[in-house]
Amino acid sequence: MKIDIHVHSSERSSCGRSSEEEIIRSAIVHGLDAIVFTDHNEFIPDDRLIELNEKYRPFKIFKGIEVSVPKEHVLVIGLDDTSLESEDWTYEDLHKFVRDNSAYMAIAHPFRYRDYINADLNIYPPDAIETHSANTTKDTRPSIYEMIQKHDLKEICTSDAHHVDRVGIFYNELNYPARDERELTEILKAGEYTCKAMQDRVDKINEDIEAIEERINVLHGQGKSVNEIREIIGIHKSRIESILEGVSYKI
Ligand SMILES: [Zn+2]
Ligand SMILES: [Zn+2]
After folding, report:
1. Pairing state of beta strands 128-132 and 104-108?
2. Residue 25 CA, ligand 2 centroid: distance in Å
């Protein structure tokens, strides 16, 4: 079963740019068998989940959540509790709650904005850390693998798609199919899966990123200010500044 366990929808994520059904159709077109909606601090409603599963069967749609804790995002699957729909969790309390309920948790896009993970993984190890996603850059991967080795964690590959063009670029292939969130949780916790990439899509994304990064450097070389470059390229100022310092956003 090919599954992308980290996707967003415009219905619940303000940063989501594609609707639930657009995301599902994209997943089907790209050959996935299932996705997990993990919107920020909000679950997909049960009646909607049932409706979508009936409409798109045999494709499977599961319920998860991406919980914001200080300086980190944590994917939680297998714990259907509305108390997770809050931005007040600390990583430590969330860890206890997930463990008490034998659920699954993974740290999303580590090292995205800082050079450390804001959690003591010795005491509070998650089940996995995301090594590949649309928001996990190649440059951060050595640090992520170092953490995985140090704390004996599993890696997961997801898209973190907020738009149809990213759905399934990275995914996990489960060794056997999951029928519900409980089975999915057990398979993920047991590491019964392989991380996969749709490499031709990833290569195309990286070509586009490289072209933008080159253009920014060329404009800078022509004496354009960061604000002027932002007007021309249309991406965030802090990102332009990082690129000019040599950071790459290739995934
Ligand atoms: Zn996130
Ligand atoms: Zn996300």
Report:
1. parallel
2. 19
